[in-house]
Design a protein that fits this description.
Length: 323
């Protein structure tokens, strides 16, 4: 830890126990000091990975409890990550809409009232739909999402821009592609196959993929996503021209291409394909993303391509997490 309390930024991460939150909290604590970053999640107990700093059990749908906590403490930055992801949301549309929207309103309103300095709220490639151009999808284009998750993310983007324009709320956002990591398991998305495959490669040397072999999707290694998030959050306000959400690109590949990349390291690895309901979600999403606006506004540059990501994943995956 460095600095004293008065100088430290106060940061709150809601949805901290998830795939992104776990790594984001650890990096924020590394940069700001362990005690200045509160990890909050609906889970009763703090996971071992986040035990190096404060933990708060918080249901973001309990608006009064969230308001009381934030009003009492005031935070310089709030990262709102709690959401149902695409596949889980299709199974529970009502909860997905409530969770993905109500938490956002609570946090936007607290910022409007002056209790939060800056908000990060993640959007997704799911804001795009079947009528969107699939290749090099531009920042501004046709957006007609056909999933519950995509509809909630698109509505959230509109509200973020609205609160910025109408009330000056400093809210920043990225349309994350599918994120690939080994520290914690993914939470019910369509891109999860690109994480699952590494656990099965390590444990059984074979994998049955729930998407077709030729389904191209935009993806990103987690450390790139965390760095992008923190770069966007520290960019000068006047360099941010997009207050809905930024397109962001790391790499893109199909399951067959990922299998081939794994086989370069593990030649006996085998994959088969048994597409399920997630195929029809993936079919509506872009295959690659044009992120030139993020590059020119705040200097975004990815560090991981497919080969480098595959190597790090195979070296670090811990199959114990599956049990
Ligand atoms: P995740 O499912 O792994 O984690 C979500 C966390 O939110 C979980 O720890 C869960 O316990 C918590 N949570 C659920 N309900 C809650 C509630 N009522 N109150 C407080 N916490 C609650 O999700 P993730 O992959 O870490 O995604 C985080 C955010 O990033 C989401 O908004 C998601 O839509 C977005 N995103 C993720 C990806 C990806 O590939 N992981 C891609 C695009 C966008
Ligand atoms: N990875 C996410 C999902 O598949 C995209 O937002 O749901």
């Amino acid at each position: 830890m460095s600095g004293n309390h008065a100088e430290m930024k106060r940061v709150l991460v809601i949805g901290a126990c998830g795939q992104i939150g776990t790594e984001l909290v650890l990096e924020l604590r590394r940069r700001n000091g362990n005690n200045s970053v509160v990890a909050a999640d609906v889970k009763d107990h703090c996971p071992e990975a986040l035990s190096n700093g404060p933990y708060r059990c918080m249901d973001v749908l309990d608006r009064e409890a969230v308001r009381a906590f934030i009003q009492n403490d005031s935070f310089d930055e709030v990262y709102l990550l709690a959401a149902l992801l695409s596949a889980t949301a299709e199974k529970n549309p009502d909860l997905a809409w409530r969770l993905n929207m109500e938490g956002l309103f609570t946090i936007l309103n607290l910022a409007k009232e002056g209790h939060i300095g800056k908000i990060f709220w993640p959007s997704s490639i799911a804001v795009f739909g079947p009528s969107t151009p699939k290749t090099n999808t531009p920042q501004q284009t046709i957006m007609e999402p056909t999933t519950v998750y995509g509809i909630s993310k698109q509505a959230g983007e509109r509200w973020c821009e609205y609160y910025f324009q109408k009330y000056g709320v400093d809210v920043r956002s990225i349309r994350y592609p599918g994120l690939i990591s080994y520290t914690s398991l993914p939470g019910g998305g369509t891109t999860d196959y690109a994480v699952d495959i590494f656990y099965h490669a390590k444990r059984e040397n074979r994998y049955t993929c729930f998407l077709k072999a030729d389904t191209r999707l935009p993806m990103m290694y987690m450390s790139d996503a965390i760095r992008a998030t923190l770069e966007l959050m520290s960019a000068p306000s006047d360099s941010i021209s997009v207050r809905s959400s930024y397109n962001l690109s790391g790499c893109d590949f199909t399951p067959a291409e990922l299998v081939a990349a794994i086989q370069k390291n593990q030649p006996d690895f085998e994959a088969t394909y048994a597409p399920d309901f997630r195929q029809s979600i993936a079919d509506t999403w872009p295959g690659s993303i044009d992120d030139s606006v993020a590059r020119s506004d705040w200097g975004w540059q990815e560090a991981y391509g497919v080969e480098k990501m595959v190597k790090v994943m195979l070296e670090n995956i811990n199959v114990q997490l599956l049990t």
